[in-house]
Each structure stands twice: as C-alpha cells, then as structure tokens.
Design brief:
alpha/beta; single chain
Length: 397
Amino acid sequence: MQTARSFPRVNELRKMVNELHANGRPDIFRPGFCAELQQHVYQKFDSDAADVIVALADGVVCGFAIAEYIDRPESPYIFARRFYHIDEFGVDAAFRRKGAATALIAFCRQEAARMRFDRIELDVWSFNEEALKFYEAVGFQTYRPLDGAADRHRRQASMTQPGSFTVHTGHAGPLFTRRPGVAIRCSCCTETARITPISRRSSASSRSIITFSRRIRADTEPPPRGSGPFTLERFADDLLEFLHAQALTRVHLLGFSDGANIAMLFALRHPELVEKLILNGGNLSPSGIRPSVQLPIELGYRIARLFAGRSPEARKHAELLGLMVNEPHIPPETLSALTMPVLVLAGTRDMVKRRHTEQIAASLPNAQLQFLNGDHFLAAKEPSAFNEAVLRFLQEA
C-alpha cells in the first residue's frame, strides 16, 4: 500500500505547486518549501478530518490531492455547512492530459458522495489558467471571489448522488474493504489504466482502497497495451504482478464483467491470495451471454477482422471484441476449488443469461447468489443497492 512512503514524492509535487503560486503572486506567496510546509502532508494524513490521496502510474506517484472534511455548525450569522474541500491538488506535468487529474477528481467525487457531502469546494487563482480550464471541464463553477481578491475564486461542484458511493462506475472503480481490496476494470473501460487513485482510508475504520485495470487498448495512452497476447490469462498474471508490487499478500477481490472473469482465473491460480471474492456480471464462456448481445459482438468482430490488415483502428477493435468472442473458457467443475466466500451478483435484466449466473454460483462451494433489479451495469445505475449488497457481504464474518 502507498501510505506515508509516498509523501517525499508528494512533497516534490507540492513544492512545484508552491513555486507556481509564488511566481504567479509573489506579493502573497513565499518562495521555497520550508520544513513546516513539508510537515503539512503528514499532519493531514494523521487527521481524522482529512485525507491524502495519490495517483499512481506504474507504481510512481504522479499526482496528489489533500482533502478536508468540513462540518461547520450553524451560528447566528450562517447556516450549518458540510462540504468536501480539496485543500491542495497537483499533477506532475508529464502526466497532465493523460487522465491522472481526472482520475483524482473522480475519486474525490466518489469519496465525497460516500461520506454524504453534497458538494466539493476548492480555491483557484485566476492566473492559473490551465487549472481553471481543467476544473471547468470536470464540472466546477466559480461561485464567489475570496477575501476581496478579484483573482481568487472559490469553485464548487455538486454531487448528483449524495449519500452513495460507487464501488465501481460500471466499468471500474474503488472497492472499500477492511482488508486491502482490489476491483478490476472491464474490457469496455475507456479510462486511463494504471493511473490509480489510492487513499489511506475510505472511512473512519481506515479501509484500504485500490483500483486495478486490465491492459488497455493500444490506442489509449498512457500506457500502451504492451506486446504479446491480449488475453484474460495474461491479465490475471498482470494482477499478480500488481499485488506483488503493492506488497499485498491477501485481498478481497471484486471483478465486473470480464473483470469478474479475470478474478475467477486469478483466484483459481492463486487462491491463497484471495480472502473474499465478488463476481459481478461474469461468465464462464461466450455461450453464457444472451444472443441479442453476443451476436452483434460476433458480427462486429468479424467485420473488424476483415479490415484489420488495412486499418490499425479495425485491428485494435478486433482485438478488444475478440476478448468477448473467444474468451473465457472456464470449466464449471474447476470452480469447486474456490473455497473462499464468494458473492455472485447480476442484474435481473443482465446480458449474462440468468441460468448461466446460477450455474456459476452452484459450482462454487461457498457462494451467495443475488440478483438485483437492473441490467449489466448495476454499480453505475443502481449504486445504493449494489453497495449495500457488497458491503453486507464484506462485513460478514
């Protein structure tokens, strides 16, 4: 896990931000980065009313956010206010416009919603035009200048679903567990992989958070898909390397869609590393998908393959669709080896056949099966019901 070990690198990024402010407003900000400023991140880390979040790219800290949980009581002058305040925020210049900042903001939104804040606030100076454009792009709006300074503004973003957090967004996202938890992204993910927001805790009980994405398509950067086969088995090997790199020896594992298929393959290979397993919308073979969904995928795959020799885009599209046409092939009888507690989740209108989901649960010796009202994308469309089911399962002895 990335905890205080990350802070020297976080302070390098914080120093860059401080220098930006000192150059933009030398009449206000002092140059340099004294020991007191360096200690600030450790103080926030230790506070119950704040958190430090980092974004990782291939294990290297490429961005950070320091968040504060503001709960101001009512007074004779103002109404009570609760909001999630981003006190500091920065991304290494080499990772800008590559998804790191967006991933951090998305994670902050999920945390704010989970903690029942209805808004996020941050302060930004008008000389920082790049930051202004970014915050506007991700939904922040200026709502007042601060301290009479015409060039300093407070920005806010409303939370559309207060009181809920998204365990994964339909394609991916963080999993909140008392043990380190890993959630695997599905193949249709278009977010940047391996730029992973990690927080010290997701609640007062200091739950750990990790997200993991399978190799992304070659047309998405960073990083490229790499060389070699583009298969679920290889993605399971990637997950093992990821856990080793994070020094994680036992985790709760959640997978969605083909992320669930990767999770099954991983657990079959490394059952000693998985304490609890959550399979959302997985399938054992392509035949487990409803024909109304699978047949168009197969048609698209054949068309893409037909033009793959002449078009790089068609070749990449064929590779992605090939995952859903040619994989997985997990014999149901092999699941009897998975003795850890397993939660099998699917929607009542899922693209995975109901009897196929029932077969997965029946093949597991210690499984719970639950159908939630909804389609394949339960976490995105029915977050409250989805989160309740997942957290209840994780909290069971």
